[in-house]
Design a protein that fits this description.
With about 140 residues, this protein is mainly alpha-helical. The protein has helices spanning about 1-20, 45-60, 85-90, 120-139; strands at about 25-30, 65, 75-80, 80. The chain folds into two domains: about 1-90, no CATH class; about 95-139. It contains four helices and four strands, in the order αβαβββαα. The strands form two sheets. A two-stranded parallel ribbon has the order 1-2. A two-stranded antiparallel ribbon has the order 3-4.
Amino acid sequence: MAIQNHTHVAHREFLDWYFATQIPAHVGEYGVGRKDDFTAERDTDLVREYYRFTTNFFALHGMPTTVWDDQGWFAISHGTELVYGLAENIVLPRPAPAPAPAPEPSPPPAPPVDSGSSRPLAVCMLLASAFLSMLSSFA
């Protein structure tokens, strides 16, 4: 709870400005760092919760974030290896996309011009039927 309270208080003025001005904002270069002899202190649930909460806090306010990863004191990764489970707490799962609305039915085709043959009309009807069948499979 201390992380949440601190984050709310520390960023209150910024959030007030953000909502008052409606200027898009990006929160960059945040994280938890430790000098060489103390980097293991980052492998804690408290640090993972900090990354999780901070990322979610700003995302819920509509702001993208960029965590600081210097491959050293603030490492999220070393080379291609993720460290301490921190990255898993930064990357938010994406919600499932909303289903697409059902397509409106097409208006009936215009009456054919008398060309002496019904074959072009039959081909058009066949194509229209196939297209509508395809659309209904997306619903």
